[in-house]
């Protein structure tokens, strides 16, 4: 069965060219030109991945992402304006799994889509399928891509799970932003990208970590982030 992608883009020519290219690469693509109707379609159709433009008629991409994220388990890839850090950070804070700046080369978009789809449940690399980790009341499983805290399920996006698993599997060690970006997105840290910071902030909230004095995912000033082996009771 082909991977189902909903492309939410109001530029008719761009949407058509993008859909044609992705379809030639064995992806089933449908197009939605409006934000105010995209929300219902995403929730009703539950595609594997949504490519969501920010600037849309009716309702912008941020509003759509915020509305569907609690009930949509697929991947959300946002298209943002070039060099607009605010757009990128806001999209991630609202639950997007990744972002890519416009204009984007089709082959770059395809590569990013494939990387995101590999992380969906059932598509994880077999080398990690059997792995699970436990720290006090916290449990995380790569096999089922689930995380539990005090026996309660933690609702995570695909990107949040990937980051949390990476941190937890290196518990007690500091990982720099460059380490995290290289592993998760295949790019180095350019000194400006705040995507990791935004996801760390979301994870801390979901893990009941004090944002002012975090003890579970610690910030090591000038170096990076450290997942604590302790403080999980």
Description:
This protein is an alpha/beta fold and 233 residues long. It folds into two domains: 3-117, 3-Layer(aba) Sandwich (Rossmann fold); 126-227, Arc Repressor Mutant, subunit A, CATH 1.10.10.10. The protein is 36% helix and 23% strand. The chain contains eight helices and twelve strands. It has a five-stranded parallel beta sheet with strand order 2-1-3-4-5, with helices on both faces. A four-stranded antiparallel beta sheet has the order 6-7-8-9, with helices on one face. Helix 2 packs parallel to helix 3 (61-68), helix 4 (85-93) runs parallel beside helix 8 (195-206) and helix 6 (158-168) packs across helix 8 (195-206). The longest helix has 13 residues, at 12-24. Residues 124-130 have low confidence and may be disordered.
């Amino acid at each position: 069965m082909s991977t189902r992608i909903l492309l939410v883009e109001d530029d008719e020519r761009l949407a058509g060219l993008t859909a044609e290219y992705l379809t030639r690469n064995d992806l089933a693509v449908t197009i939605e030109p409006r934000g105010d109707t995209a929300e219902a379609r995403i929730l009703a159709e539950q595609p594997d991945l949504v490519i969501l433009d920010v600037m849309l008629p009716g309702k912008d991409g941020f509003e759509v992402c915020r509305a569907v994220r609690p009930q949509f388990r697929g991947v959300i890839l946002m298209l943002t304006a070039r060099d607009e850090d605010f757009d990128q950070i806001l999209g991630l804070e609202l639950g997007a799994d990744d972002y890519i700046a416009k204009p984007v080369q089709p082959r770059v978009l395809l590569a990013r889509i494939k990387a995101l789809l590999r992380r969906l449940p059932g598509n994880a690399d077999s080398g990690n399928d059997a792995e699970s980790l436990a720290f006090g009341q916290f449990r995380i499983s790569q096999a089922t891509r689930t995380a539990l805290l005090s026996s309660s399920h933690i609702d995570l996006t695909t990107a949040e799970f990937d980051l949390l698993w990476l941190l937890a599997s290196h518990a007690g060690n500091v990982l720099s932003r460059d380490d995290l970006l290289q592993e998760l997105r295949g790019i180095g840290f350019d000194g400006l990208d705040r995507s990791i910071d935004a996801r760390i902030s979301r994870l801390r909230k979901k893990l009941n970590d004090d944002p002012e004095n975090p003890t579970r995912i610690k910030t090591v000033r000038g170096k990076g982030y450290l997942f604590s082996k302790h403080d999980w009771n």
